[in-house]
């Protein structure tokens, strides 16, 4: 039988083998912990008084056990620095047993234009910190407990409702906003809801992110590609076989076109006549450069569109914060999929984002980043626009550079020689999108580099192009 004790101050877990004398048992337990490497060299042990109190034994017993281990060289005892595990008390087969598993060092390319990330150096640390301080100061005690509402904190849902209505044209009642840990989490929940409704097929854009499609497939849904052209996804080709369609109407990912009003209307008509749902991925809707942002499709029919937003482009993907505005008829099912409580995002992050939005800091940050990205976009066009066709540049953080036929692969190869990570358009193509015309192009995520890396990254791209 083994027994465990823990100290306060610094916890020390010891397995004391019953049946030995107290002192011998304690000595052996500490020796074994040091020998096996579980207690690393340099680890400070509790004082003999504290450990004795924790174990309910006489202080002398602990002091004698420590003294014996010091004499054996397992521990060191120095005035002022307490009793520590000795440097040489390494596990005997240290090299073999305790060597950390070494993974090959993954040194990525020096430059990256992989789309999907904002400039992480632009995260508004100071403004976020002051919002966090205010949020923490004002947080009621109940915010530190288990959340009772699976939709998430009402403070954030109210702030989002106001923001989404004002900035994105979304009909957003705080009661129908459900917070999620980014778009991926929202889509996971919706995929479960669709399966529970016995939906088998979801239409997706012929160009899109493979891991979004994979997520749907893992949930038991089949994905069917819609053709994408200069007006966006061809929503007129939606059929009753699909129970839902996943769209990026404001800025098609990755081709960058905005879904035209006719195509938007066709999607809503399809949803109304078939009872299908539109899943609107509004991942970078805030970033439109030449005119007012295109409003959300959800505004056309809040009963048929689930609006999904995320802080991943406007702030940072590491926050893992997203939100859904759910049609009334779907709310119960989405909440059932989420479970009885909000477990995915922490209350303090939610309260901080609520404060960040309500104080106007979110708008200021988005406006500042918009200027930064527009400048980069203009520099991109100036640098390469005379050699390749640049499209998808009215919005977002990426652009598409069309290449002469057959050159996609060789441009990616030259980019690799320039130490530049770059994606071709081909990797975003749905494997069954046979009707999509061939298109050789690269997708340039000009939001990705830091400000200091931007110029050399652009130079590397220019050098890689024909
Ligand atoms: C098309 C698209 N949708 C959604 C997202 C956001 O995903 P998440 O909120 O899970 O970070 C991204 C981010 O790169 C994206 O490119």
Considering the chains and any ligands shown, give keywords for the structure.
466 residues, alpha/beta, Arc Repressor Mutant, subunit A, Aspartate Aminotransferase, domain 1, Aspartate Aminotransferase, domain 2, 3 domains, globular, disordered N terminus, binds pyridoxal-5'-phosphate
Q: Count the E strands.
A: 19
Proper CATH architecture of the largest domain: 3-Layer(aba) Sandwich
> What Rg, in angstroms, do the CA atoms define?
29 Å
CATH class designation of the largest domain = Alpha Beta
User: Strand-residue fraction?
Assistant: 5-15%
Residue ranges: pLDDT <50 for 5 or more in a row?
1-8
Write the layout of secondary structure elements.
Layout: E1 2-3, E2 16-17, H1 22-36, H2 48-55, H3 59-72, E3 75-78, E4 82-85, H4 94-98, E5 111-112, H5 125-138, H6 154-168, E6 177-180, H7 182-196, E7 201-205, H8 210-218, E8 222-226, E9 228-229, E10 232-233, E11 244-247, H9 261-274, E12 277-281, E13 305-310, E14 322-325, H10 328-338, H11 347-358, H12 361-384, E15 389-391, E16 399-402, H13 408-417, E17 420-421, E18 423-424, E19 441-444, H14 451-464
Parallel strand pairs: 5-17, 7-8, 7-11, 11-12, 12-13
Antiparallel strand pairs: 1-2, 3-4, 6-14, 9-10, 13-14, 15-16, 16-19, 18-19
The protein binds pyridoxal-5'-phosphate.
Task: Describe the protein.
The chain is α/β, with parallel strands linked by helices. It has three domains: 2-98, Arc Repressor Mutant, subunit A; 111-116 and 363-464, Aspartate Aminotransferase, domain 1; 122-360, Aspartate Aminotransferase, domain 2 (3-Layer(aba) Sandwich). 39% of the residues lie in helices and 14% in strands. The chain has helices spanning 22-36, 48-55, 59-72, 94-98, 125-138, 154-168, 182-196, 210-218, 261-274, 328-338, 347-358, 361-384, 408-417, 451-464; strands at 2-3, 16-17, 75-78, 82-85, 111-112, 177-180, 201-205, 222-226, 228-229, 232-233, 244-247, 277-281, 305-310, 322-325, 389-391, 399-402, 420-421, 423-424, 441-444. The protein has a seven-stranded mixed β-sheet with strand order 6-14-13-12-11-7-8, sandwiched between helices. The protein has a four-stranded antiparallel β-sheet with strand order 15-16-19-18, with helices on one face. β7 (201-205), α8 (210-218) and β8 (222-226) form a beta-alpha-beta unit. It is globular. It starts with a strand and ends with a helix.
């Amino acid at each position: 039988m083994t027994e465990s004790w823990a100290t306060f101050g610094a916890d020390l877990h010891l397995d004391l083998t019953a049946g030995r004398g107290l002192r011998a048992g304690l000595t052996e337990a500490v020796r074994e912990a040091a020998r096996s490497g579980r207690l690393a060299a340099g680890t400070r042990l509790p004082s003999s008084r504290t450990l004795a109190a924790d174990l309910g034994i006489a202080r002398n017993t602990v002091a004698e056990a420590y003294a014996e281990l010091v004499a054996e060289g397992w521990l060191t005892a120095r005035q002022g620095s307490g009793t520590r595990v000795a440097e040489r008390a390494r596990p005997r087969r240290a090299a073999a047993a305790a060597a950390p598993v070494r993974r090959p060092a993954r040194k990525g390319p020096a430059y990256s234009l992989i789309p999907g990330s904002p400039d992480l150096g632009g995260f508004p640390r100071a403004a976020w910190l002051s919002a966090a301080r205010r949020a923490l100061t004002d947080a009621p005690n109940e915010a530190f407990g288990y959340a009772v509402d699976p939709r998430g904190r009402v403070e954030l849902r109210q702030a989002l409702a106001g923001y989404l209505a004002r900035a994105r044209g979304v009909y957003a009642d705080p009661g129908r906003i459900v917070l999620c840990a980014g778009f991926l989490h929202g889509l996971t929940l919706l995929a479960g809801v669709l399966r529970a409704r016995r939906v088998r097929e979801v239409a997706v854009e012929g160009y899109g992110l493979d891991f979004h499609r994979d997520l749907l497939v893992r949930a038991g849904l089949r994905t069917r590609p819609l053709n994408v052209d200069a007006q966006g996804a061809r929503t007129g080709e939606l059929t009753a076989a699909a129970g839902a369609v996943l769209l990026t109407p404001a800025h098609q990912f990755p081709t960058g076109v905005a879904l035209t009003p006719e195509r938007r209307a066709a999607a809503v008509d399809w949803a109304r006549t078939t009872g299908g749902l539109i899943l609107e991925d509004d991942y970078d809707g805030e970033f439109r450069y030449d005119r007012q942002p295109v409003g959300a499709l959800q505004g056309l029919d809040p009963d048929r569109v689930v609006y999904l937003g995320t802080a991943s482009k406007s702030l940072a993907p590491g926050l893992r914060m997203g939100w859904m505005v759910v049609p009334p008829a779907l709310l119960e099912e989405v909440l059932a999929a989420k479970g009885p409580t909000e477990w995915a995002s922490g209350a303090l992050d939610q309260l901080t984002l609520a404060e960040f939005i309500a104080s106007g800091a979110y708008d200021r940050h988005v406006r500042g980043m918009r200027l930064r990205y527009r400048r980069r976009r203009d520099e991109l066009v100036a640098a390469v626009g005379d050699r390749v066709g640049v499209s998808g540049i009215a919005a977002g953080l990426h652009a598409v550079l069309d290449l002469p036929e057959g050159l996609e692969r060789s441009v990616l190869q030259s980019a690799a020689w320039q130490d530049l990570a770059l994606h071709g358009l081909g990797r975003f193509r749905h494997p069954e999108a046979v009707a999509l015309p061939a298109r050789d192009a690269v997708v340039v995520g000009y939001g990705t580099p830091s400000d200091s890396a931007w110029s050399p990254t652009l130079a590397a791209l220019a050098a890689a192009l024909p």
